[in-house]
Write a structure and sequence with these properties.
It contains 1 helix and 3 strands; from the N terminus they run E-E-E-H. The chain is of the alpha+beta class. The mean pLDDT is 88. This is Translational regulator CsrA.
Length: 69
């Protein structure tokens, strides 16, 4: 993992197409903006975790129903 220090208004580039902009730093909260092509999905980590857990539960439920047949 690369760890960088940035101030408000500064940017970080990932490859040629993705720009991370530090919008605001207030206490322990940092607001960032992300400029990326529309074909790149951007999702918060906690949402990705929730979706993964929901998908796992759905598969388990489906298997349980299938076993009852």
């Amino acid at each position: 993992m690369l760890v960088l220090s940035r101030k408000a208004g500064e940017t970080i580039y990932i490859g040629e197409d993705i720009e991370i902009v530090i919008s605001e730093v207030k206490g322990e909260q940092v607001k960032i903006g992300i400029r990326a092509p529309r074909n790149i999905d951007i999702i918060r980590g906690e949402l990705r975790q929730d979706v993964s857990e929901s998908n796992t539960e759905a598969v388990i439920t489906s298997l349980d129903l299938f076993k009852k047949l």
